[in-house]
Write a structure and sequence with these properties.
This protein has 261 residues and is α+β, with helices and mostly antiparallel strands. The protein has two domains: 2-127, Beta-grasp domain (Ubiquitin-like (UB roll), Roll); 130-260, Orthogonal Bundle (Fumarate Reductase Iron-sulfur Protein, Chain B, domain 2), CATH 1.10.1060. It is 29% helix and 16% strand. The protein contains eight helices and nine strands. It has helices at 59-69, 130-138, 160-167, 183-188, 194-205, 213-220, 234-238, 245-260, and strands at residues 2-3, 13-18, 27-34, 44-51, 89-92, 95-98, 110-114, 120-123, 126-127. A hairpin with a 2-residue loop joins β8 (120-123) and β9. α5 crosses α8. It is elongated. It starts with a strand and ends with a helix. The model is unreliable at 1-8 (pLDDT under 50).
């Protein structure tokens, strides 16, 4: 696999230009990062010109159009097309976004599409999220309630106010837009958990049904796992679900300070 952070002796070369159909009256241009690990060649940027009226409404519509009618080898992830699954996260015009809910009407006539930055690339617009998911699993994103047995005849209940505390953090779709927009994560991803994993940790720390808050905080009290966050706020700016990972991380830090005082 290649890495979006290219080595010094590597260059992104100019790729193929696919011109718009003859007679096209209004043209949109898409410059798309391409990389085929089996080719042995450096990454390239291919140019695709489409009749604007045939692009659809969203960036994902345009990608599907290109794959269906111009170049079937173009590779990207997609699933729900509703901003729910997070599969189609990519870097569009320099910003991490979901292609399925990024409107072409909000972009210029020329659109640059790259994979999520600073991640290994499997092929074209598909990043390798193996490490990202491993970090998420490391915070134990499930209920830990070993001290008291579950009620025999119902679920573990919580009040409406208690549920509302976790409502927003629990809405994370693990698209990785936040973590891959964070400079601290770019340079320290081997040890810094990143905004997505820390948001998940916060979601369980504040869950009234969870009984492992102290254990979870102990696991995060580390110079790299948590404190590599420098509150740059990129994570919050790019979240497609309007969540606030930076605030969650700040709250975890606050809890650790209060516990020591």
């Amino acid at each position: 696999m290649a890495d979006f952070r290219l080595p010094a002796n590597s260059r992104i070369r100019k790729g193929t230009t696919h011109t718009a159909p003859e007679g096209a009256r209004e043209v949109r241009t898409f410059r798309i990062y391409r990389f085929d690990p089996d080719s042995g060649e450096n990454p390239r940027v291919d140019t695709f010109e489409l009749e604007a009226g045939e692009c659809g409404q969203m960036v994902l519509d345009a990608l599907i159009r290109i794959k269906s009618t111009v170049d079937s080898s173009l590779t990207f992830r997609r699933s729900c097309r509703e901003g729910i699954c997070g599969s189609c996260a990519m870097n569009i015009d320099g910003v991490n976004r979901l292609a399925c809910i990024t409107s072409l009407h909000d972009l210029g006539r020329e659109v640059r599409i790259y994979p999520l930055p600073h991640m290994p690339v499997v092929k074209d617009l598909v990043p390798d999220l193996t490490h990202f998911y491993a970090q998420y699993a490391s915070v134990k994103p499930w209920l830990l309630a070993h001290q008291s047995p579950p009620p025999p005849d119902r679920e573990r209940l919580q009040s409406k106010a208690e549920q509302e505390k976790i409502d927003r953090p629990a809405a994370c779709i693990l698209c990785a837009c936040c973590s891959t927009s964070c400079p601290s994560y770019w340079w320290n991803s081997d040890r810094y958990l990143g905004p997505a994993a820390l948001l998940a940790a916060y979601r369980w720390i504040i869950d009234s049904r969870d009984e492992a808050g102290g254990e979870r905080l102990d696991a995060l009290e580390d110079p790299f796992k948590l404190y590599r966050c420098h509150t740059i706020m990129n994570c919050t700016d790019v979240c497609p679900k309007d969540l606030n990972p930076a605030r969650a991380i700040a709250e975890i830090k606050k809890m650790l300070v209060e516990r020591q005082s």
